[in-house]
Amino acid sequence: MVKRVLKNIFPTAFLKHAFYLYNSLKVKTIDLILFPEYKIERDKFHLYRKEFPFILNKVSIQGISNKTVQQYMLAWKDWTQEEYIYFHKGKITIEPKIGWGIVERNKILYYSLGISRTLFLPKPEVFTWFLGKKKIKEVDKIISLRDTGEENYFHFFNDVLAKIYFLELQSIPVQEYQLLIAEKVWNKNFFQFWLTHIGHKKNFIWLVQKSDEYIISKESIFCKPITHHLKVLENLFQPYSEIPIQSKSYPEKIYLKRNPKRLRFVENADEIESLVMQYGFEVIDTDELCVADQIGLFKEVKKVIGIHGAGLTNLFFSINCTDLIELFPPPDAGYLPFHYIMVASFKNIRYDALIGDPTKNKYSGAFLVNKKELESLIINHQ
Length: 382
Fold this sequence. Notes:
Layout: H1 2-9, H2 12-28, H3 30-34, E1 47-51, H4 53-56, H5 67-74, E2 81-94, E3 101-103, E4 107-109, H6 126-130, E5 135-144, H7 153-169, E6 178-182, H8 183-186, H9 189-197, E7 205-209, E8 213-224, H10 230-237, E9 253-256, E10 265-266, H11 269-278, E11 282-284, H12 291-300, E12 303-307, E13 323-328, H13 339-346, E14 350-355, E15 357-358, E16 366-368, H14 371-380
Parallel strand pairs: 5-6, 5-8, 6-7, 9-11, 9-12, 10-16, 12-13, 13-14
Antiparallel strand pairs: 1-2, 2-3, 2-8, 3-4, 15-16
Helix pairs in contact: 7-10, 11-14
């Protein structure tokens, strides 16, 4: 109720920033007392390693025109990430909101989620966990597919489904376990599309966790592949190429916009959309397309200009794409996301990017795109 009222009063971007500040303080103080970490020694992992994803995937930044963008991307070369498989023997509770694994009375298993140590990720709800009446379901063996950002189109592939294909590559008998997935993900059209066209062939046993349901498992597997694990993603997306897609007339050059109701959008949209249309780009919002049309569109597209966002995930389906220009808002968090330069690298797509300018109301989610800078990039990618 309170959240609904706040969303009607304040912009989403402002609320997100305010929550980040609040949660950062909470994670560093009270959460350390209420939810201490359940420690795991390295030799307890079935598999554990650290890697440099940018180096491992041979991502090049040489084609980026903007020197500032180059520097931001260059910083990722020093970034390491964990890859692991952990078998937890003994009871563990998976709380419903985030998917945290809780051992004993209140110890958090940080390896129950792939990206778990960020300051924006809330811990379990204190009152419900310690005092509330909980709806509990007990099971024998699970593989948890719960993860941070699980409802997002990109993270669904990279962080949720990828776990299945990663375990298969490691010869883990996935069909012997129940696959735990959040009900909110199960109901997503992109999950049901995968399940209908691909997933049903694998004879998995699904355990759909309801929004108020605590799952207690006697034996559990938690895992995380390196982000953008090439072999995993190749195995994940290859079956999509075999799905028959209705033949339509799709454009070869597209500009991916985002609705102003979303967290990230271009404020001078009319000016920018007029510019890209002059160069033959069709303006599209992937939120308005079904999954089949997104696949069909990206199989045909050759050049893409897009605001950083989940719509660019569809580049995984591309066959003929040669060029991508990604538009970023000002990097208030001190970094530029790396997701789509890595996808472009996999697909041999020429990558370039532009950083937008702030607006007067930085918490609206809007940013400005410099028309002359974008036009220069478009001409350079003719």
